[in-house]
Amino acid sequence: MTLQENSGIAKVDLNTKSITDIFPVGLKDHMLEGNEIDVSDRDDIDGNFQNWPILAYYMPDAIESFQVGKTNYLITANEGDTRDYDGYSEEEWGKDLSLDPTAFPNAEWLLEDENLGRYTTTSKGDVDGDGDFDMIYGIGGRSFSIWDSSTGALIRDYPNLAADLYAANPSLFDDGRSDNKGVEPEGVEIGYVNGKMLVFIGLERSDAIMVYQLNGPSNLRFLQVLDEISGIGESGHDAPEGLLFIPAEESPTNSALFIVSSEGDGKITIYQN
């Protein structure tokens, strides 16, 4: 099970009803090649994917398991969710941080609204306790990841959800969410169709489902975006939340079914292979 606000995964023994291990899932470095993100809703550029001096907590939400050979793996949708309550909140806009001038010599530029000014950070980052921030910690991996279920080791992080969505259908990319969780990967489901292992990722704020083919433990290929309700002509899922795959052998139609529940409009959508 995921420990979303704590950015970890708990291993639970259902026989003893006890937690046997906790895997911290670490931080994602957005300065690394391949980890570019769009961080601003005020830059007037949709899909402005760049590197930024941010370490982001993955904060996984939904989780599924699958097996390759004799090895079990986990796959998580890294939505991001903070402790944000009436009496306590760890969220801060970037422009509300006082950045250490040595660590961030370009702090004034960084904290403009078209850059990191409106990016949602945590209130952590004052490493040396001197009152300014030496690190910028972000919220959510904006990705989905594959982990070794025995050790918690990261096998593969797939950071290109937003880029794949933007390339497939730019109209689905909501730049108004760029400063806060981006496309917001919420749900994950795995299913087999015609011998192929498919991964379905629900993007809550983009009202779409991303479909990938998984070959082995880490080889992923983007297939398509599901963004229309078949046969009805109504565009989009309104905040897809729950995902369920029913294999053909268990389906009342004898064909594989993929079911999406959307919390925004309260609708259920069923896709048939």
Tally of DSSP β-strands: 19
Residue-averaged pLDDT: 93
CATH topology of the domain at 24-29 and 61-78 and 142-272: the name is: Lipocalin
Distance between the termini: 29 Å
Q: Specify the oligomeric state.
A: single chain
Uncertain regions spanning at least 5 consecutive residues: 229-235
| Integer-rounded radius of gyration | 19 Å
Instruction: Specify the helix fraction band.
Output: under 10%
What is the H-and-E element order? EEEEEEEEHHEEEEHEEEEEEE
β content, as a range? 35-45%
Coarse structural class: mainly beta
Q: What is the tally of helical segments?
A: 3
Highest-level CATH class of the domain at 24-29 and 61-78 and 142-272: Mainly Beta
Q: Biggest sheet: strands side by side, in what order?
A: 6-7-11-12
Q: What global shape is seen? A: globular
Sheet of most strands: 4 strands, antiparallel
Proper CATH architecture of the domain at 24-29 and 61-78 and 142-272: Beta Barrel
Outline:
With 273 residues, this protein is mainly beta. The chain has helices spanning 107-110, 113-117, 161-168, and strands at residues 2-3, 8-13, 18-24, 27-29, 55-57, 63-68, 71-78, 91-93, 120-122, 137-139, 143-148, 154-158, 185-193, 196-203, 208-215, 219-226, 240-246, 257-262, 268-272.
Word description of this protein:
With 273 residues, the chain is mostly beta strands. It has a domain at 24-29 and 61-78 and 142-272: Lipocalin (Beta Barrel), CATH 2.40.128. Helix content is 6%, strand content 39%. The chain contains three helices and 19 strands. The strands form six sheets. A four-stranded antiparallel sheet has the order 6-7-11-12, with no helix packed on it. It has a four-stranded antiparallel sheet with strand order 13-14-15-16, with helices on one face. The two termini are 29 Å apart.
